[in-house]
Amino acid sequence: MTDVAIIGGGPAGLMAAEVLATAGCRVTIYDGMPSVARKLLLAGKSGLNLTHSEPYQRFVTRYHPAEHALITALDAFRPDDLIAWANTLGADCFVGSSGRVFPKAMKASPLLRAWLRRLASLGITVKTRHRWIGFSGKNLICETPDGRLEVAGDAILFALGGASWPRLGSDAAWVEPFRTAGVDVADLRPANVGFDVAWDGLFIERFAGTPVKSVTATSDAGTTPGEFVISRHGIEGSLVYAHSASLRDRLDHDGKANFVIDLVPGRTAERLARDLARQDAKASFSNQLRKGAGLDGVKATLVRLFSTEEERHDPARLTARLKALPIPLVRIRPIEEAISSAGGIRFDSIDARFMLKARPGTFVAGEMLDWEAPTGGYLLTACMATGRAAARGIIDWLESR
Ligand SMILES: Cc1cc2nc3c(=O)[nH]c(=O)nc-3n(C[C@H](O)[C@H](O)[C@H](O)COP(=O)(O)OP(=O)(O)OC[C@H]3O[C@@H](n4cnc5c(N)ncnc54)[C@H](O)[C@@H]3O)c2cc1C
After folding, report:
1. CATH code of the region 3-191+336-400
2. 1-34: per-residue pLDDT in tens?
3. Is the distance from CB of 17 to CB of 124 less than 8 angstroms?
4. How far is the CA of 99 from the centre of ligand 1 (A)?
């Protein structure tokens, strides 16, 4: 029997363990935390968006960069496969209004409990509080409550996650030892995250926590409808996350970026201009905006903040502002707050089996690889798909030896 050591018990590592143990390998999972899959449990707090129901041809366009190995892994474990797999764990799923797929329980704990029971029944050993700290020749060194331990295996899989929410276990401390071992790792950057905006104190007091609903946002990523939330620091929420990668790249490249929103997406510019021009010029700006464009509250205040006096007095220029209001971004929020991270092990550093070229017999999967995707279930799907692909790569490699 072959022994496989998996370091990291998140969705990628657990999925790889299931495939390997089902194929007859003796699997031990090592995790630095007192329990596994803490980030999966946290994802459950917002309903556990497992995957997305849009047509698969569109689904795969969400991943950047669209690396061949990643797409091949997704081809082999599509959203329908994930839903069928979740069903086998007793998690019936439903499709939400935006096409996102959730378990009916809207949390992760029942699914995780059933999954861990299955893994135990397959004979998998889970060793928590075993933190990998580096390589020792072919073996690994883990820090444990009983001191340092050398770990060996016929094959090793790392599924250590990215760098967001480090207190849940994925702190990206693996980056330096991997680079020292000759693995090319792109810097980890925040993804699916908010931005700082220079709000004044009064605005924060009035509107922090307020949703801005039924708008569209435009960036290099295209135009998407949705909503976002005013935070104490700036802006966050699903519509911001959908554009956060392109806004982040623009901030990095140009040193400045605007979150551009259409506050009246249901009306054409021509119609809106007509509606605004029809307003009594002597009425207050608030009344003109409310009657002419249907805007009040936080939306009207945003218009005041990010338009000039001249624009407010000219229906044509005001229309242009309302259809493309630029909210200037100061900086991206820290990676610790992000839903996920971009960057990681470059696909050039692995082969088609997800094996590190610099360390034959060592495989990698999940968010520690260099890909990113928006929220919508794309993250978990790819973590599980690459976990499965790496497990199959291990089986293939072990058989070929
Ligand atoms: C708030 C929040 C909500 C989210 N919601 C969703 C959602 O609804 N849908 C979705 O698709 N995605 C969601 N995600 C993202 C998703 O949870 C992650 O992309 C996914 O968990 C990554 O899986 P992974 O197995 O690659 O890594 P992780 O889940 O991060 O697991 C890595 C594991 O490795 C362990 N580890 C790390 N370093 C070491 C070490 N040195 N030694 C030993 N063990 C180590 C960690 O303790 C951890 O258990 C959310 C993320 C957050 C933060």
Report:
1. 3.50.50.60
2. 899 999 999 999 999 999 999 999 999 999 999 9
3. yes
4. 23
